[in-house]
Amino acid sequence: MSSDSLPSAVEEEQSVGLLSNTMEARAEHLKTRNYRSLYYFTTALGVGMMVMMLTWLVKHRGGFSWSSNTKTQFNWHPLLMSIGMLFIYGHSILVYRTGRAAPKKRLKILHALLHGTTFILAVIALKAVFDSHNYAKPPIANLYTFHSWFGLITAILFTGQFLFGFMSFLYPGLSKTLRSAVLPVHVATGTAIFVLALISALTGLTEKTLWTLDTGYAQLPSEAILINFLALFLGFFGVFVLYLVNDPDFKRTNLPEDEVALASSD
Ligand code: HEM
Fold first, then answer.
1. What's the distance, Cα to Cα, between the start and end of the chain in Å?
2. Which of 1, 51, 84, 183 has CA atoms 20 to 30 A from the CA of 115?
3. What 3-state class would DSSP assign to 219?
4. Mutation test of ligand 1: which of 55, 80, 147, 152 has the most ligand atoms closer than 8 Å to its C-beta?
5. Per-residue model confidence as pLDDT tens digits over 202-249
6. Would the pLDDT of 3 be above 60?
7. Please, what is the angle between helix 256-264 and helix 104-134, to 10°?
8. Three-class SS string for 74-94?
9. Percentage of the chain with pLDDT > 90?
10. What is the DSSP letter of 251?
11. CATH number of the domain bearing residue 93
């Protein structure tokens, strides 16, 4: 073989570089595909949870009203809490992984909008439950169960996290160094508050089920079966959100344009 037909050192280096780029692109494609499949499955669990919640409250618990009937006013509480504090909050903490190819600034705004929506729904849900206690005849005591303690702490921490996150990362925004220092704390706290929301929802659902079905629960009527499935969907929706948010494979890597945007906002 003549020396002409042998690849030069430069050509060899180029082909190794090309191969490693192709392998990286393939690995990235696989990660995105795995993420998408799990994300759609998680969303399906969340949609199933909301449909079952709505069916339960309409079919078995009298539907919805506001001040005209405190019993049905209460029903807004579980519905809006599960839409806001679980479904929307869960999707909000996944926004950076779901939109890994989108510019960071846009994702930050979407993350804040979803959190803002959760906040509004949680306020209405709390007003519904407090009103349903205060205006009942006779009035029902407030804040005596551990569900209500967990729930209130969750709502307060969520509000603090939302305000602190907004001021640190969006407006007025901290310096780049401070933002990088605060980010891991923000991520850990946000995930912990989501776990607290799951605990609050499951304890709320348990106490409501035991109070309304009482000894009839053991006969497993259709309402009990519906609630049990609802609780399973709710719990596993939470487990899958936590898995997706914690797997380092699915973590978004900064795009070149993010670096420019981040540097210019310093
Ligand atoms: C993240 C979700 C949730 C949060 C943050 C939360 C928060 C709260 C809070 C702060 C209270 C106290 C209201 C008062 O004392 O007047 C409460 C009451 C109540 N919640 Fe929830 N809740 C959540 C989800 C649910 C769900 C899914 C149910 C299911 C039915 C539920 C059922 C109840 C019931 C029955 C009460 C009245 C009895 C009590 O005070 O424990 N909650 N909730």
1. 59
2. 51
3. helix
4. 147
5. 999 999 999 999 999 999 999 999 999 999 999 999 999 999 999 999
6. no
7. 70
8. HCHHHHHHHHHHHHHHHHHHC
9. 82
10. P
11. 1.20.120.1770
Tokens of 112: 């804040």
Residue identifier of the C-alpha nearest atom 29 of ligand 1: 205
The finding on whether 147 has its CB within 6 A of some atom of ligand 1 is: yes
Q: Which two tokens stand for residue 30?
A: 């696989």
Q: Are 132 and 78 in contact (CB under 8 A)?
A: no
pLDDT tens-digit map of 20-37:
788 888 888 888 999 999
Tell whether pTM > 0.85.
Answer: yes
Residue 1 has pLDDT above 60, yes or no: no
- 8 Å CB contact between 77 and 125: yes
Residue 109 near residue 170, CB atoms below 8 Å? yes
When divided into structural domains, the chain yields a total of 1
Which helix (H) or strand (E) segment holds residue 187: the answer is helix 176-213
Q: How many other CB atoms are there within 10 angstroms of residue 248's CB atom?
A: 5
Contact present, 221 and 59 (Cβ < 8 Å): no
Which whole-number Å values give the CA distances from 151 to 51, 175, 266, in the listed order? Answer: 22, 34, 37
CA distance 66 to 64: 7
Domain range enclosing 32: 3-264
Q: Which of 91, 93, 167, 87 is nearest to 122 (CA)?
A: 87
Report how far ligand 1's centroid is from the alpha carbon of 19 (Å). 56
